[in-house]
Each structure stands twice: as C-alpha cells, then as structure tokens.
Design brief:
416 residues, 23 strands, five-stranded mixed sheet, nine-stranded antiparallel sheet, elongated, 4 helices, 6% helix, mainly beta
Length: 416
Amino acid sequence: MKFVTYSPQSVLRRIFPAFAVFFAASVALSAQTSTADSDAEKDSEDVVKLSPFLVQDDDGDGYRSDKTLVGSRTAKSVLDVSNSIAIINRQTIEDLNAVDVHSLLQVGVAGVSQNQTINDDYNIRGFRSLYSLRDGITKVAYKRNPLYDVERVEVIRGPAAMLLGNNSFLGGTVNFVTRGASHKKTGDVQLTVGENSYYRLQANVTGPLVDKNNLKLDYRLTLGYNIGDKDKEIEEEDNKFLGGALGFQFGPNTSFTLSGYYYQDDGYFYWEDFLDYSSTRGGSTLNPKWAVLNPYSTKEFSPGRGKDALWNNKDIFINATFLTKITDNTNFRLAFYVSKDIDERRHVRGISIASDNVTLNRQDIPLRIDANTKDWQADITNTLELPAGMKLDTTVGADYILQYTLQAQVVATPPS
C-alpha cells in the first residue's frame, strides 16, 4: 500500500569543495519584469522567500525539474549552468520504486553506466566516479547511498572541476538531495516484497509542530528497513535507516534548518563468480579466447567464506543551515556539514585460477576505514537594480573543509 502527496519542500544545500577560501562574482544582465513581490504576497504560507538559496520541490512539471543549486551556491536554471545536468526528481523515484541509484540511472540519464554492483560506482562519459555528493558535499560511501529520504538525484556530466572546485570528477558525478521539512502535513509509506524473503519498508511523514506569527517549526521523520536474501547463498540485504529534519522560521526573513540521518548497513554483497581465462580453455596471450564463467562457480559457491561473512557499515550525515535576508536585495547563508563513514569488513576472495582450471588462489583481507568530513560555508548575494529593468547579481562565498581518513588493512594469502 502506498500513499503519496506532493507539497513544496526546500533544499538548502551547496558546495564548492576546496580547502581554501572561495571568492566568486557572477554578473547577469537581463531584462525582467518585476513580479516577485506580487508572487510573494499571493501565497501567505510560503513565509520565507530566500530565492537565491532555495530550490522548490514544485519547480518542475511531472518528471521535469528546472533548477539546481549544484556548483553555483545559488538557485539557477539548469540551462544557465555550464555543465550538462540531468535531474531525476521525486516523482520519478517514487514511480520507479527505486531502491538504489543504479535503477534510476538506467532510465533517467544517458552517458552513465554501472561499474560495480556493491556500491555507487559509475562510469560517466568514460571516466570512473567513485564518490558522490550529498546536498552538494563530496561524500565518501563504501556501500550504496540510501534513497529513503532523497528528494531528487542530480547527475552532472562532463568535467566538473570548474563547477564543483574538485578535479577528481573528470567525467561527472551524482548529487543526492535530501528532503526538507514541510509546513503542510503529508506522509507516504512504501512496502516492497520480493523473492528470497525480501522486504523493504520506507516511511516519511512531515508537517508543522509550531505555527505562530513570529515562529514556525516544521518537522520530517524518515524510517527505512531492508532485509532479504540474494541469489548467492553468501549474500544478503540487511540495513536500517533513521533520518529527520527540523525547519525553523523566525518571522518573514530568517530561517534555520537541521537535517541528518543514521544509516547502518550490515548486508553482504561481493563478487563470488570467477571467470575462466586460462590457457586450458584453448586461449593464450597471442591467441585469446572469450572468457567464460567457470563451471564450478555455482549459486552455493563461496571461496572460503561462511554465511556470516563480515561487512558492516555505519553512515552519519548532518546538515545545519541558517538563512536571513539582510536587506530587500541582500541575502546571507551560513551552513555546516558533518559526514562520517565507518566501514568494517573481511573479504576472502578468489584472485586467480591455477593451471588445472580447478584450484582457486585466494586472498584474505580484513579492513577498517574511518572517513570524516566537516565543511563550513558562508555566502552573501546581492541584487543591484539598474535602469531600464536591468539587474546586477553578485555572489561572494567562503568555504573551509576539514577531511581525514584512517585505514587499517591486511592482505593475507590463505591456502588455495
């Protein structure tokens, strides 16, 4: 059973991930008719009208969305961004009942292919992209990113160093945008049941907590749960998700939002199959043959692992954003992000096949990774009214990022 309602929700995220102070001035001259004030008075529920830093949930039509915050720090039409950006919005995600981003990329964007099944690893325009963005922040994820509280997915295609301030995204990257808290009470529940004892539950509820003239407080609560076996006996799904958001509105010009989640994924999915490319199959370096699946690689095959193979992952993400309108033409934003990923696993995997075409040489790899990121951002936008209906838009931003990763790993060679 599924209940879905749609309402405007704001997403207050941006990033220029560089360990430095960033200064940017963007000048846009365009002839416009001034209708913003009349539109603001039309809807009394939308008290905060900080358009430079907000992208509304209803800015598109159906499966189409028009605006993004990626790369510019302020809301812009995708037509005004130098890179090619494809947006997969909430309606598309719900209609496809997507449980991972690869299900969306197959139908929502061209030029992107899946590189691995065990995490969000993409090939975008021929270049591998190991990392993604979460609300515009570069985020490490050693398993698949959760979709339980995702409002939309933005795919940036093409070199993104100038757009994102990060030269590691040669072919592009994917940005996961979090749902906000809404002043309109809504809720939706999704339950998916499948083969191999597969169950997935996703529940979101949002609405007002306080509604006064000088203070409005909205909330969002998200719960997620997924469990089930896979085709391979060794594999399983096992994850839990708890997320939420609070949105404070202090009068008509100031707001503060706090959102975050805790995601624990104890599922195990890794490569068990192995390809047979040895010369006993009739191939050689000078005369290669097509690689084929080794006949010993069956559904029950596991190269030395028990059913309780270890791969535990804890993922924490927190975002706090303060917005205020200093004057009628000047807006200020202050944001703080925390991202933490703890990954513990032990992989016993086949690494090569002996010449007898039966013996499998193996590796035993215990591994722990602790990745941490803290990001502080500040932005000021100003609009200068010019004669003849012209406007001069200026943005000044600053960024400070602290990122470190601890890793402990041993590679052992057990008996073949």
